[in-house]
Amino acid sequence: MPARSFTVKVPATSANIGPGFDVVGLSLSLFLTVTVTVPDVPADTPFQPPTIAYEGEGTKEVPLDAYKNLMTRVALYVLRCHNVINFPSHIIMHANNEIPFGRGLGSSGAAVIAGVLLGNELGQLHLPTERLLDFALMVERHPDNVTAALVGGFVGSYLKELTPADAMAASVPLSEVLPEYPPDAGQNWGLNPPVPPLGIGHYIRFGWSPSIKAVAIIPRFELSTARARECLPTAYTRQDLVFNLQRLAVLTTALSQEPPDPNLIYEAMKDRVHQPYRRLLIPGLPEVTSSITPSTHPGLLGICLSGAGPTILALATSGFEAIAEDARKIFRSQGIEIDWKILHIVGGSSVSRM
Ligand SMILES: Nc1ncnc2c1ncn2[C@@H]1O[C@H](COP(=O)(O)OP(=O)(O)OP(=O)(O)O)[C@@H](O)[C@H]1O
Ligand SMILES: N[C@@H](CCO)C(=O)O
């Protein structure tokens, strides 16, 4: 087969947008870009595992061993589910990452989607979007980040109620989906990965007012999603459930209206399911979300925790700098420094072949 090259580009995402815990996600203009070359090597050349070069966010912590790196392990999972035992030999990857790790901007979701697209391309599998999503959901089990990263825009999703057999298949431990591969990569490991059930996730893209931009206020510390989920309760009161449902129902349409209405949106971005429990992990969170309002900051529409945090997401039509700088003062009073960026809402992931 002749040498080939392709580039996978996956956006950052912000999940929840206030009341839509594990339901809604928004794709944003920071990208994980991976360029891959599959050289044409003679069939009798000894196997050589992928070479990974990596720059940008996470460079110091990301493993460059393809059998340890999240993105390439996901690619290998997709390949192995299609009877392809290993990566093609001698592939060269170059990743450029703009998405900070563990900040609530969907870095792991982007790595998972990049991995699924990589596996699809390397194996020339031609999987449809719905099937790509099934594979992503076997790794990242809440659909909000991965769906928005894959299809782009402001997206709502749910997981189908599976048959008992499919539910069991979809809930196998992550260690079985992405096993620790042996160091002697290249030998025959056998093929028994847990193949995803069909049609796990379903989604719809909502409208988005073109005048709304996102200000990402990014504290300079990492908070893993796993830790930020451990502090959540397992049951909620009816009042809290109804509080969030009422707001989410209004929010999904309110953010599509032109001009967007701050009176509707600010209240509709409040939450009682995850933010109140995460405030202990993110000093300054309640002060930022309650003291920066449309009346104190003209142009602001609403403000919430981005994903599992610690990033704060402010949706606004203007006044971006005042919002971010006032949030900086509040965080600084807690001893926390921040960076901030104005981000645009972008389309989904792409693969371009060269
Ligand atoms: N480009 C990447 N390549 C390999 N691994 C990555 C990459 N991006 C993220 N990861 C892995 O994902 C971890 C971060 O995942 P985590 O779910 O805790 O945070 P997040 O996805 O940034 O936040 P959130 O899910 O709240 O948006 C990193 O520590 C790293 O192990
Ligand atoms: N819905 C998820 C998003 C983070 O991955 C959470 O808030 O835990």
Automatic annotation (TrEMBL):
Q: Which residues form the GHMP kinase N-terminal domain?
A: 69-153
Query: Which EC class is this protein assigned?
Result: transferase
Q: Which UniProt keywords apply?
A: Amino-acid biosynthesis, ATP-binding, Kinase, Nucleotide-binding, Threonine biosynthesis, Transferase
Q: List the catalytic activities from the record.
A: L-homoserine + ATP = O-phospho-L-homoserine + ADP + H(+)
Question: Pfam families per the record?
Answer: GHMP_kinases_N
- Keyword Amino-acid biosynthesis assigned to the entry: answer is yes
Question: Which GO BP terms, alphabetically?
Answer: threonine biosynthetic process
Family (UniProt): Belongs to the GHMP kinase family. Homoserine kinase subfamily.
Q: Which PANTHER family match?
A: HOMOSERINE KINASE, HOMOSERINE/4-DIPHOSPHOCYTIDYL-2-C-METHYL-D-ERYTHRITOL KINASE
Q: What name appears for this protein in its UniProt entry?
A: Homoserine kinase
What organism does the record attribute this protein to? Fistulina hepatica ATCC 64428
